[in-house]
Amino acid sequence: MRTLTSLGEGESGIVQYIRPESPLRRRLLDIGIVCGTKVQCLQKSVFGDPKAYLIRDTVIAIRNEDAGYIVIE
Fold first, then answer.
1. Could you read off the pLDDT of 34-56 as tens digits, one per residue?
2. Distance between CA atoms of 58 and 41, rounded to whole angstroms?
């Protein structure tokens, strides 16, 4: 099982699901992170957290703690 945090800059993956124990699950679903969505890691911040992801033609910064709940293939 691989999560969004495992993506390096320039890598991409397809969302499989968001783990149900995620405190931001509803918010992540609302912004379009659903099963089948392609996600690309664009860059990480100076300290490595958060990372910027390209999701549905929109750049979204997600903290590593929250990205760990997003399972990808």
1. 999 999 999 988 887 899 999 99
2. 12
Residue ranges of domains in the chain: 2-72
pLDDT attached to residue 47: 84
CATH code 2.30.30.90 for 2-72: yes
Question: Quick check: helix, strand or coil at residue 61?
Answer: strand
Lookup: tokens for 52? 């910027």
Distance CA 16, CA 5 (A): 14
- Per DSSP, the three-state class of 33 is coil
Nearest to 69 by CA among 8, 10, 16, 13: 16
State the burial class of residue 39 (Cβ atoms within 10 Å of its Cβ: 0-12, 13-18, 19+): buried
- Residue the block writes with tokens 């991409």: 12
